[in-house]
Every structure is written in C-alpha cells, then in structure tokens.
Amino acid sequence: MTMTHSPPFTLQQIGTGTARFPSGAPIPTHSDQMVDPYFRTRMPKEHQIDSLLFWPQEKGIYPGLVLLHDWWGLTGQMKDLGAKLACEGYMVIVPNLYGRLGGMVTANDDVAAALMDKQIEADVLTDINSCCEYLNTRTIAKRNIHSVVGYGMGGSYALRFACHRKRLHAAVSYYGKILQPLELLKNLSSPVLYHQAGQSTWTTQEETDALRTAATDFGKRAEVHLYPDASLAFCNDMKPSVYRADDASLAWERTAAFLKTCFQGT
Fold first, then answer.
1. Which helix (H) or strand (E) holds 67?
2. What number of other Cβ atoms are within 10 A of residue 116's Cβ?
3. pLDDT (tens digit, 9 = 90+) per residue, 107-163?
4. Where in the chain are the domains?
5. What's the alpha-carbon Rg for the chain, to the nearest Å?
6. Would the pTM count as exceeding 0.85?
7. Distance (Å, whole) CA 42 – CA 67
8. Could you tell me if 68 and 157 are in contact, meaning their C-beta atoms sit under 8 angstroms apart?
9. Domain 11-33+45-263, CATH 3.40.50.1820 — does that match?
C-alpha cells in the first residue's frame, strides 16, 4: 500500500540534534547555564536523559511528540521514525529509555527481553514526563501541546503515560501491552489509537476487546485497529521475518490522520 497523503515537510527540511537533561527535576534553560560557571563540570545528582531531536526547519511553532522505542533500544529504525514524524509537522524527541542500563541497543530478542525486565516503570514514566517538560523549554515547540507514540515496549509505556499525564493530546500504541488493571483508564486524559498485531500473543483479542469496553464505560476515546495476519513488530523493517510493509504503511496512515485530528485547533 502506498502513502495516500503527502506530509507537509520532506526529510531534507528536517533538523536533527541531541539533548541531555535531568529526569524528574527542573530543566535547565540556556539562561541558567549562562549564569552558572560550574554548569559544565558539576556532577548532576539526577539521572540524565539522553535523547534525539527532530524538527521542521521552516520557521514555526510545532506540537511536540515523544517517540518511545521498542525493547531493542534506540535503534536506527527509531531514528528514521523520529525524522518521519517530524515530516508530519511535529517537534519530536526520542529518549533513550535504557539510559539507566547503559543505553544499550541489541538485535537479540532474548537480550532485549532481559533489558525490558530490568526497567522500573516509575522511572521510565518520570523520564517520559521530563521529555514533555523539555519540549516546553523549546521555542519551536508549542507549550503543553504534546502526544506520545510508542512501539512494542514503548507502546506499553505510551498507554500507561496517557493515564499519568493530564496535559496530553494523544497516545498511539503499536502492539503494546494493554493496561492492567483497566480501571487505570479512568485517569486517561487523551484519545488513544491502538494497533493490534493479530498473530501476536503479546496482547490477545480478549484484552483489546476489554480495552474498548472499558474506554466506553469510562467515557474515553480508544480506537483499535486489527491487522489479522501481522505478527508482533510488524512495523520493524529491521526484522524481515515479521515486517509487513502493507500493514506498516496502513498503520502509519492511520497514525498520521489520528494525530492530525487530535492536534487540530491547537
């Protein structure tokens, strides 16, 4: 399936950079750094989040997106997705969620599973929240106009974070773990788009049905799309054994349209 819409920016119009800032603490501004003679040499007490940035270079103020990587770490595929999302007209930040584990990246599923198991959810949610606060310090990002998009492990965190931060406009989860308990959806403040891999046991049909039901019961908007023949990680073109180009393209179309709707009027 080919793209049916043209993003407003091309890859040649996207700027890239890096950022490092404290987790769970005020984000130092440029002014703070200028007046602090020891800024570069002081050892910070808080965990420092390393991240990648992507943004349209055309002058403007853009909604912010936090992109959350899968259990393999911050791979080249995630960097490509960050740039691709920026082409849709967003200021994108991609944090390394494995920063406390040395920032590891792996292609091995067993190693990835072990890394994910070592994560402390509260720390990760704090890191994601700090990414939103970092976006608030950027002059080209709209203040508190944020969304979160996650794949696999990152998709699980996207759902949890959407129930954690009140000022969020959208959450997109690609085949993430469904929230447990579902009563957490009472705290959901943004619309949710969920992409379900039909051949995966990571999330069952019963769980996604329960997600729909709970969202309706709590008056929340949850949109679920099923890709019947797709396996887990079907959007990962670095995994040829499971990658499904047509399904990945369709999921991207739906994501782009969903985000545009959620950010309309901001």
1. strand 62-68
2. 18
3. 999 999 999 999 999 999 999 999 999 999 999 999 999 999 999 999 999 999 999
4. 11-33+45-263
5. 18
6. yes
7. 29
8. yes
9. yes
